[in-house]
Amino acid sequence: MLEITAAQGLVLGLLALPVCAWVAYTDLSEMKIRNVAVLALMALFAVAAPFVMPLAEYGWRWLQFAAVLAVGFVLHAIRAVGAGDAKFAAAMAPFVAPGDAAEVGLLFAGLLVVTFVAHRTARAVPAVRGLAPEWQSWHEPKDFPMGITLAATLVCYLGAAALGLA
Asked: How far from the centroid of its chain's Cα atoms is residue 14's Cα?
């Protein structure tokens, strides 16, 4: 059972959805997650979350942001993740209820497999590549647009909460 409430999932999910779609698109097309998208997601949480959660919980959620940002900094320094991925993961962190971290980690792991296979399969099909031949992610031999996995994770998590599926 998820710790996040249905109201939190609904409100935060509806607000985060356009930003997540934008992040997925720009990472697929440009292999970049823009700082303005990261800031937009943080601003949405900053403004909307106090209406759907107690202020004490709201404050603790910002500590999650700081912790994930610090870990992301280290991972980026050792070249394990891209800077945009690290920043977007940190911006996502306040949206996750503390008790749901393990579930979100499992969701991320599953979606990583799904999005990686889907991306590599789509990239291998000329008709699909022809729909967006300028997308940089088609031409990267080793790099993967992790923004699609991160965005899908947040949308699925908040969506599951909103629908009461967990």
From this structure: 14
CA distance 163 to 70: 32
pTM for the structure as a whole: 0.96
**pLDDT tens figures, 95-145:** 999 999 999 999 999 999 999 999 999 999 999 999 999 999 999 989 999
pLDDT in tens, 38-85: 999 999 999 999 999 999 999 999 999 999 999 999 999 999 999 999
Structure tokens of 87?
């920043």
CB 79 within 8 A of CB 105: no
Tokens of 88: 């977007």
Contact 9, 166 (CB under 8 A): no
Using alpha carbons, select from 108, 114, 136, 154 the residue that is nearest to residue 25: 136
User: Which residue, among 145, 153, 111, 146, has the nearest Cα to 16 in the 3D structure?
Assistant: 153
CA 116 to chain centre: 15
Domain ranges in the chain are 6-162
